[in-house]
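Might you be able to review the protein record set out just below?
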Amino acid sequence: MKKQNLLVAITGASGAGYARKLLRSIPQESYVIHLMSSEAGRLVYELETGVELSEDLPAHVLTYEESDFTAPFASGSFPCAGMVIVPCTMGTLGAIAVGLSQSLIHRAADVCLKERRPLIVVPRETPLNRVHLSNMLKVAEAGAIILPAMPGFYHRPRSIEDIFDFVVARILDQLGIEHSLSKPWMGLESGS
């Protein structure tokens, strides 16, 4: 079976644990991950995980500099299953909302939108101002999926890993990738 290409971008918002869990949850037998990270994304990743991003990657991850506009996925002719930006800063979201391609991350997101491929944006910011909300609406209207890092608690998380699992499970669900990170809600069991 031929592996599919999947794009992942890490920007400088807090929430590196979501990116780390996602990179480890995408099956390497089915996908090649093309990873982009902003400089701030790498810094926050190290601050929050205690490990440099470049030293913490699974084997099926290829990395690209955010200034590398010669990357294959900068063109719509490169086949890919979609893109996830996790976590996504409000600056990155704003650039995507107005079609500004100042980095490879912005360009790859723009390509996904123009080619009608899944683009999943995982903003991690609070509180949100009117500009943030307006940009989310613009990006959603352009075809992206806005998937805020807002965990549920009905599954009774017992650790930070359980919270990461919940959000990453939603990302994988949107991509149609099977996982065992969390069980879907099936309603209240009889007798509860």
Summary: The longest strand covers residues 4-10. Residues 160-175 form the longest helix (16 residues). DSSP finds six helices and six strands in the chain. The chain has one domain: 4-175.
